[in-house]
Every structure is written in C-alpha cells, then in structure tokens.
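Same chain as my last thread, 153 residues:
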Amino acid sequence: MDQELDEALSQAWLATAVAEARAGLAEGGIPIGAALYGPDGALLGRGRNRRVQDGDPSAHAETAAFRNAGRQRSYRGTTMVTTLSPCWYCSGLVRQFGISRVVIGEAATFHGGHDWLAEHGVEIVLVDDPECVAMMRAFIKDNPALWNEDIGE
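reply #2:
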C-alpha cells in the first residue's frame, strides 16, 4: 500500500463513512457507512447500508462502496473504511477481492469477521470511535427488531 495510515488519516477517512451512516439514518435506514480508498489515498467509492431504503438484504455499506468504486484492475493496496465491524458477508467481499486493509469505526456493538480477516493477512485498524459507538447504540436501542434482521438474528 502506498498510502501510510496514521491516526489523522484514519479519522479523515472514517469521517467519509460516518457521513454516509448519518445519511442512511436520515433516510430511515441502518446507520452504517463505508468508503473504499485506493493505494494512493484517492477515494474510489462510498456508500451506506440501504437494506431498508431499497428492500435489498444485500445492500450493505461495504458492498455499496465497493459497487460505487466501479471496476478496478486490482484491489490490492486498497482500504475499506467502515463505521462498524464488517459482517461475514462483507468480510467475504474483502477477502474475495484482496482488499488489503480495513479501518473499522467500532466493534463494541457488533463484532463481525475482522479477526478472521486479520488471520488471513488483512491489516485491521480498529479506531473505537465514540460517535460510531453512540450512533449504533442509539439505533439498536430504538430499533431492536430491525437490527436483529440486519445481523440475521
């Protein structure tokens, strides 16, 4: 990866994903956002969970960011930034396409597949961002049935 990741850059990239999560919440959806950055640090694509808005159970934030990035010759050296630990579906996407690094806003409310990703050579950066935690805790408290649907419970 060309782009060295420090705390300031992690926070700047995470801000893009947080903006997507806020937009999804404002639309009546699940507040999870993501962004895919290239090896040079360029924003390739961004997206938010749109399961509710589109009635599509596969419309997760990471898949939206990935789709919005369009075709890339290779995903080696790219960084997926997400407000929440990626579920198994999105973790599979990261592995399938060889995304090199995942920056995670928080894993306190949901611990997805990021340990598995790390075991398979994906660099994991867990930010533990208070805003991401607060946004998800409030959503889960206010929408337990929808949250359980989203995580397959």
